[in-house]
Write a structure and sequence with these properties.
Layout (H helix, E strand, L loop, with lengths): L2 E7 L3 H11 L7 E7 L6 H11 L4 E7 L2 E7 L8 E6 L4 H16 L4 E5 L3 E2 L4 H16 L3 E9 L5 E3 L2 E5 L5 E2 L6 E5 L3 E5 L14 H11 L3 E12 L8 H19 L1 H17 L3 H16 L2
Length: about 300
């Protein structure tokens, strides 16, 4: 099995380097890492390439614009490069960044599997080996394409966050760790191994609900959503997005888009319930933001 691991970086080179370090210390090494930098405004690319040069890791650095890839730098004259850094010409968000990684892989690297992995995660040394073996077993069992996740642990508390699945309650719009009817079960995008060929992610989601929508797409294409409890990964939950107001804006916008796209009869009920909740909690700014998000989203209808 040929595997490409896809990471997205935006102004967070410290976590990205820690993630790379855990990937470079795996029990197997027959995989490539495609790292898409979403037009970082700090020294991310320099710091990451400096780390790779100092550790003598083969890499190549490309620039991406308008579906074209241009080679900028390489420290390896062989075909055995392990890390491919793609400098995106814009911040395309999580979905858009991953789509660039898929496009690069299809243009330059052949593979059978993709592993989408958050850059603020750290994985144990046998993680890739276990995930590939588990994916193969699920594929044999179901005789279908497989989308596979693993158990997530909070990096800081070392407590289990979820078992690989989330459940979107359609009445409240809350993503829960257990199913409450009516719900949609989806696989967590922080760690997702999928068979090639795969669909592109919907770039209408800049942040949040990309994995929810992607699960819908995968199910529609006959993929089985599976999770394994034989390995785990550690997620620095919430570390890549600190501003609560910015988080809420993206969350409400993406929630509105997803509900309108797949469950339109629930949309207004969900937003009304959220509004009443924030009124009771005394969160007036969040209420205003919710109303503004609703008006803005409606203006595009």
């Amino acid at each position: 099995m040929k595997l490409n691991v896809c990471l997205i970086n935006y102004n967070n080179y410290e976590d990205t380097i820690a993630c790379l370090n855990s990937l470079l210390n795996q029990s197997i090494d027959n995989f490539n890492v495609v790292l898409v930098d979403n037009c970082s405004t700090n020294q991310s690319v320099f710091c990451i390439t400096d780390y790779l040069l100092k550790t003598n890791i083969p890499f190549a650095n490309y620039y991406y614009k308008e579906d074209s890839f241009s080679l900028l730098q390489s420290n390896d004259k062989t075909l055995g490069k392990k890390i491919y850094i793609i400098q995106n010409d814009k911040n395309a968000g999580f979905a858009g960044g991953n789509n660039v990684g898929v496009k690069f892989s299809r243009s330059f690297l052949s593979c059978d599997l993709f592993l989408f992995l958050n850059n603020d995660t750290v994985v144990p040394e046998n993680f890739i080996e276990v995930m590939v073996n588990e994916h193969s077993q699920f594929s044999t069992k179901h005789q279908s394409y497989i989308a596979l996740s693993a158990i997530e642990f909070n990096y800081y508390t070392k407590k289990k966050s979820h078992n690989g699945f989330h459940y979107l309650n359609l009445f409240s719009g809350f993503c829960l760790s257990r199913p409450i009817v009516p719900y949609f079960k989806y696989i967590c995008g922080a760690c997702l191994m999928v068979d090639e060929p795969i669909p592109f992610m919907d770039e209408g989601y800049f942040l949040y609900f990309e994995d929810t929508d992607y699960s819908k797409q995968l199910i529609g294409r006959g993929f089985q959503l599976c999770k394994t409890d034989k390995t785990r990964y550690f997620h620095k939950i919430g570390h890549s997005m600190q501003d609560n107001l910015v988080k809420s804006t993206y969350h409400f916008t993406s929630l509105w888009k997803f509900m309108n796209k797949y469950y339109p009869r629930y949309t207004k009920f969900v937003l009304l319930l959220r509004y009443m909740q924030y009124i009771c909690l005394g969160k007036k700014d969040t209420c205003k933001l919710l109303v503004q998000t609703y008006k803005t989203a409606n203006s595009y209808e």
